[in-house]
Structure formats: structure tokens, C-alpha cells
Design a protein that fits this description.
Helix 6 packs across helix 7. The protein is mostly helical and 143 residues long. It is globular, with a radius of gyration of 15 Å.
């Protein structure tokens, strides 16, 4: 059995956080739920942050400061980190690569009233706006 969740987007997000080596086997949505409930290992944050090494400080603010090595993130922070990893995976799929995804997240978007997508990720409403915009982009609808 694979250690990638049923949803390929979730699998990509798991990979961005170090995969099974860091998170343990995540094969189902319930596995993911239990991992988030227990708190992700700090090394998942480190792995995700490594994909943003060329990005500005806004991403660090969004993910929070570096956790203590060997610690676990709180449930709330685990969910925030997971949500960002999933969104980064989606943007990577839509835009063709991680560099393009990070660049897109950091630039004002006309469809988001010239706001940077990363700045909208601090609320569930803003995150939904960014997700909807990515869906429209993926479908070729440019608004």
C-alpha cells in the first residue's frame, strides 16, 4: 500500500512536508485528520519552509516562526501549515511548478482586487477567494 493519500493534491501537500519519512503513513483522510489532531512534527514545518527559501518574509509570517526542533505543532498551527501546503500544491499544479506558484502567491492579482494571494490566506474567507481564483485559472477563466 502507498503512503500517499487518496487525493493526489493531498499527496502533493504531504510530499511538500517531507512525506511518510516526516509525517508517517498518510493513506486516507482519517490518517491526515489524526496527524493534524496530534500536531504535525516540527520537521514538517521545516520541510515546507525549505520550498519557500527564495520567498519573502510574508510566508514566514503566515507559517509562524521556526518551531523547536523535535517538538510538535499545535492543532491550530498544524491546520494552518497543512492548509498552506495544500494551497501551494494546488498553485504548483495549476501554474506548472513551485517557483511559479510562489511567485504567483506573492504578486498582486487583478482578480483579487490587486491583492497578493498570500495576504488573503490569513482568513478562511480570503483563502476561499484564492482557491476559487486558482480553480478559475485552471479552467481557463480569466477574470
Amino acid at each position: 500500500m502507498t503512503s500517499e493519500p487518496e487525493n493526489s493534491l493531498d499527496g502533493h501537500a504531504v510530499t511538500l512536508m517531507g512525506g511518510a519519512d516526516v509525517l508517517g503513513p498518510i493513506e486516507t483522510a482519517l490518517d491526515l485528520h489524526l496527524a493534524l489532531q496530534a500536531g504535525l512534527p516540527a520537521s514538517a514545518w521545516v520541510q515546507l519552509r525549505s520550498h519557500l527559501s527564495f520567498a519573502g518574509p510574508r510566508f514566514v509570517e503566515l507559517l509562524g516562526s521556526a518551531p523547536r526542533e523535535g517538538s510538535r505543532l499545535s492543532r491550530l498551527r498544524s491546520n494552518r501549515v497543512w492548509t498552506f501546503a495544500r494551497l501551494l500544491a494546488r498553485a504548483t499544479d495549476v501554474l506548472g511548478g513551485p517557483a511559479a506558484a510562489v511567485d504567483w502567491l506573492a504578486r498582486p492579482a487583478m482578480a483579487l482586487e490587486r491583492r497578493r494571494p498570500v495576504d488573503l490566506l490569513t482568513t478562511c474567507v480570503g483563502r476561499r477567494m484564492v482557491e476559487d481564483h486558482l480553480t478559475r485559472m485552471d479552467l481557463g477563466v480569466h477574470t
